[in-house]
Amino acid sequence: MRTNPHVVVVGAGAFGTALATVVAQTGDVPVALLARRDETVREIRDTRRNETVLPGIALSASLAVTTDPAVLRQAPVVLFAMPSQVQREAARELASFLADGASVVICAKGMEKASGRLLTDVLEEELPRQHVAVLSGPGFAADIARGLPTAMVVAAATMEKAAELARVLSGPTFRLYPSADRIGVQLGGALKNVLAIACGIVEGAGLGDSARAALISRGLAEMSRFVAAHDGDAATVTGLSGLGDLVLTGTSHQSRNLRFGIALGRQGNADGWSGDLVEGAFAAGVASQVATERKIDMPITDAVAAIIDGKLDLPTAIGKLMTRPITQEFKEKG
Q: Where in the numbering of this chain does the Glycerol-3-phosphate dehydrogenase NAD-dependent C-terminal domain appear (predicted)?
């Protein structure tokens, strides 16, 4: 490539392609998209489209695309836009190409299934010479790629690093808010997928909008408890990476997690769906197990995990949730 890219996005799926094109559209820094398949590279170079994942959407003319990981060598900012369960593998595969001191930004929402660990912990273990950050919040790939107004959060180990990344990646239609709460931002992104599945179950089973509203509200309380138990800031879940993302994915049919939940609510099982494509299907079991180990009260998350695993049918799950002991919505202070 003639110009060394300042930002490289790894992963030419819908979200990775969208992030690459929206950052490239700012025109402030050179941006490259690192794809796995030569066919994807040829299509984008020849047509400025990635029709398989973003049909009908024109990509930035300034966006470079390649399959050569050497493009990473001098990039100070690298976005990992692949599913949560392959982040460790990707880090190992690309570690030798990454520049010392580069910022690696996780653009996936989930926890590692095998270990139950946060993705920042996973990548810091694999990439000790890089700064690990995370990007999360309410943003569908198609909306981002089309240049529709979108606001998300980028969290790093320090506010200074987060603010630096926000300045580099933000543009006229894509605004990032900096945060130093990587724990809260990550867990909000992971748990909202689980709760979006729950919202889908409510819709698919025809339980009504009142039930969805109650689920979102009580789900937010679960999210807050889980974040606090991991030493994150419980207030973070009231922002873009928590409530904002939950409202979006719990109400819009663009959400794969919501559609997966609707299928569960209608047919009582996940037949016809690949769990590899639904981040919340992984996160539910992991979060439920961690909550049990840490004695965190997570009844909605537990119910979703049990339904997905076929351990609990929908009527029984609803019955258990509605007959829980009656307690105060908020604990008294003092």
A: 181-317
User: What pLDDT sits at residue 262?
Assistant: 93
Helices (H) and strands (E) in the chain, counts: 13, 8
Pick the catalytic residue: 192, 295, 311, 320? 192
Give the three-state DSSP class for 23.
Answer: helix
- Binding-site members for sn-glycerol 3-phosphate are 109, 137, 192, 245, 255-257
Which residues sit in the known binding site?
11-16, 36-37, 109, 137, 141, 192, 245, 255-257, 278-279
What is the pLDDT, as a whole number, of residue 115? 87
CATH of the domain at 280: 1.10.1040.10
Any bridge partners for residue 139, and if so which?
none
pLDDT at position 310: 87
Q: What is the pLDDT of residue 3?
A: 55
User: What is the gyration radius of the CA atoms in the chain, in angstroms?
Assistant: 20
Tell me what the mean pLDDT of segment 246-271 comes to. 89
Beta strand 31-34 with 7-10 is parallel
Q: What is the DSSP string of 56-71?
A: T-PPPTT-EEES-GGG
Note the pLDDT of residue 4. 67
Q: Is the pTM of this model over 0.70?
A: yes
**Which two tokens mark 269?**
């099982």
Q: Which domain holds residue 33?
A: 7-180
**pLDDT level of residue 43 (50, 70, 90 thresholds):** very high
**Is 161 a known active-site residue?**
no
Where among 144, 164, 180 does a domain terminate?
180
The C-alpha atoms of residue 242 and residue 136 are separated, in whole angstroms, by: 9
d(CA 17, CA 50): 8
Residue 334: inside a domain: no
Taking each helix axis from N to C terminus, what angle separates 182-204 and 299-308, rounded to the nearest 10 degrees? 60
Phi and psi, residue 152, nearest 5°: -135, -175
Binding-site members for NAD(+) are 11-16, 141, 256
